[in-house]
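Example record for the data management plan.
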Amino acid sequence: MSEEKPKGLLSDWRVRIFIIAILLSLVAIQPWYSADEGFDTNLDYGLDLEGGSWLQVSLQGAVIQANVDSGMTASALVENIVGSPVEVVNVIPPSEGQSTITISLKTQASVTQSQLNQLGLSDSSVSREGNLSEITLYTTEQQLIATYLSEELNAEVIPYAVPGGVEYEIRTKAEQETVENLLADVGGSLLTDENGDKLYRKGVRTETRDLTKEILSEKLNALGLKDIPVRTVGDEYILMDFAGIDLTTAKEIAQKPGKFEIRIQTEGNNTKHVLYGDDISSVGVPSRHDGQWYTPFKLTLDGANALQEAAIETGAVNDPNSHWLYMYLDDKEVYGAPLSPSAASRIRTNPIYSWEASTGADNESKAQAEQLQIHLRAGALPVNVELVGSGQVDASLGDQFKKQAVLAGLLSMLAVAGVVYRRYGKKQILVPMVATSVSEVLMILVQL
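Corresponding structural encoding:
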């Protein structure tokens, strides 16, 4: 009977899988050596080991529920743009099942339709009778409150429907006393809950906190800093760790917006510049109506005029489908669409300040609308933030710790290997044990 030869290690499929796993781990870690940097890898050690800086910011804002006198509020808004007293003639409340308020005003000042369009209300008209301008506004109480507070506080104010009413998120620092004084000027006040407590709280809504975090992550990813964690702490704070980046650079990265641009198609695939991101005064929350998802935004006076001029000059008012509007963030196209027929008609005679970008009707379109909201901000945060904490970790401490950790690991492995060899005295037991320990370390490091 012939003696059966022992099989080699590589004939075992488990050993082959083991070796492949080790090789893949080495590829993922990407160890290399250079004369300048010495031995290095692709591992992300984090702030404590890599050194760098950290920032903690507080989200400034307030959330309220309030009411106002519609006539006084409309009068105050128009007075701000015409610089002359405005008298309330009549206020027609909404009919049953509707929300539109009709407000009639008059003033001795000369008022143009373009000035009224700047308010961003639903609709308006103006006519001149003798020495008086007669104004009619069609709006809602929510629009009036949001627009009034936005103008007075020079900040975005976003209304949100909640059970039993409407919440207004003020996206800047606004103390309760300041808000109450502004509301009192137009015959309004803060609402109260069932306990009689005024419906005012500092901070922002959870959705806004998450949007701020997403914008910061998007901006850092665009800069190639994908491994920087952006974490929320409650509803008021966001914490960022910048491994390997000094404190000055970290502040610049967090505060510097991207480059947003709108261009219009001229002939063929050629486009021309229309406006940059600083001509976008505010960006609203994506919403669905008429079966489509939309992202609303408003332009400044200069931005609206520039878009009107470009639309007329290129012929977009006559043939919108041949002259699309394109949006770019850091020179990368993020959106493109023609003017709607109604917008093309309106922009012939007056600049348009309030716009809506349509993305479609399905769930994917909703995600696109939310993404466009981020792009329109060009990395600018939706709320004012205050730096409440920062610090820097010396990289030399991390380097020292890494060397000590490697040395401690090697000594521990040698000690265990010595004990096992002394006990059993067989290399067949020692070598697989050490190899398994080393491979486990490599595979764990891949996750860093």
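Summary line stored alongside the record: The longest helix spans residues 395-424.
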